[in-house]
Amino acid sequence: MHGHGAGVNGLSMLPGERLLSGAEDGSLRIFDPYWDETRQLVGVSAESAVLLLAETDVEGATIAFSMSANGAIVNELVTEEGGRRVLRPRGGAWAACERLGDLFVALADGGSSVFVVRPESGELITTLEGHDAKVVDLASDEMGYRLISGASDSRAIVWEGLDLGEEVESWDISHDRAVVAVGITPDGARVVTADKDKNVRVWDADLRAEVQAWEAAHTWQIQALAISTDGAMVASASKEKVSVHVVGSQDPPTSLGPHQADVGVVTFHPDGQRLFTGDTLGNVYLWDIESGDLLLELVGHDEAITALAMTADAMTLLSGDAGGLVYAWRSDRDTSRHERFQRGARRVLREEEILRFFEGDEAMAWERLSQGFRGLGKRDPAVVSLLERLAPRDGAASPGDGE
Asked: What's the structural domain count of the chain?
């Protein structure tokens, strides 16, 4: 998918399996992943280069947010009429961004604060204070309830209750040196951190207890970090080496590679058995984690891979490079694949995650979801399925009601 004239720094999926991409030249484009063509040019940021982006869906309309290097947020409402608003931080420039469910965006501006913003209006919901140095990375669960921030003050902070837009709770994860990367599972149950000493640590976020730590996991600085959907594995990259650790195991990690060049991006396949990696030569690889075997090499990029993302049904991989090129790699052109996702194992896993969020209380889950729960769209296949499955029958009590 051609169109950008500079490096692609962010990829995000939109409704209808369209792709939103942002590049260093400030351009923001929407691509159709079924065809190698640009469907729509959303716009160019008002000032400077796009660093990060997020997206959400509000009553059928797509809101795109591009974060520019000078601190402006270009808000594009993708409708027939179009529209633009420019939001700015209180000071400095945005250095990290993470979407919090469907309502809020968390932003770091290179300082020690994290700002929670309602992007549609630019309203500052709250400012999270706790770090003593630059916040370098952010990660959030799918519903926006739990956010983890990593900073140069040798700490990561886990913030809880953000989806409500009210006062939040927090707890610290301390490292001996600066935190360089953080991650979180989609259900928010586990978080992972990495520091300048190349240490990687996994925590149970519900118990606020460390699950496992791998000291000096690499010889050189960790450049990329990822945790699998179920929290069972952690992948970290340093130079041309990628290691995959199994949580709870004392066995040595699986080593993937060596690659031909430094690895800057890693992401798990949703099945938890495979891992995608992207290096600075423009190569994308798919690895079998258990055996360490290379399953597939995707060739097409001529510059460093800077972003990787997958469609919801795990049938299409999207890759962006430093030259502004985006590829959609499809294992199947069958247009019914999203329908299969709606019926399949991935939807079941999402249902389990949502119920776990409500502590298994089916009655509460049905009541909150039927009223419209913040961070969970009513068109989400898992939400639709849960509402149908948990709905009280005629003359029957709500799910989970006592006698």
From this structure: 2
Whether 23 maps to a domain, the answer reads no
- What per-residue confidence (pLDDT) applies to 191? 96
Amino acid identity, position 275 = L
The whole domain housing 137 covers: 91-116+125-330
Coil, strand or helix at 343: helix
What is the separation of C-alpha 58 from the centre of its chain, rounded to a whole number of angstroms? 19
Instruction: Tell me which residue has tokens 């420019």.
Output: 86
Q: What is the DSSP string of 63-124?
A: EEEEEETTS-EEEEEESSS--EEEE--SSS---EEEEETTTEEEEE-SSS-EEEEETTTTEE
Query: How high is the mean pLDDT in each 10-residue block of the chain (403 residues)?
Result: 66 61 63 50 43 46 48 45 44 60 74 77 79 90 89 95 75 94 91 95 94 90 91 93 92 87 90 91 90 87 82 76 77 51 59 80 87 67 83 60 46
The two tokens of residue 211 are 């699950």
For residue 337, being part of any structural domain is answered with no
Residue 144, CA distances (Å) to 3, 82, 151, 161, 185 in order: 32, 27, 20, 8, 12
**Burial zone of 376 (CB within 10 Å; 0-12 exposed, 13-18 middle, 19+ buried):** buried
Q: Are 135 and 95 in contact (CB under 8 A)?
A: yes
158, 114, 106, 324: CA torsion to nearest 10:
-110
Q: How far is CA 283 from the centre of its chain?
A: 22
Query: How much is the pLDDT for 193?
Result: 96
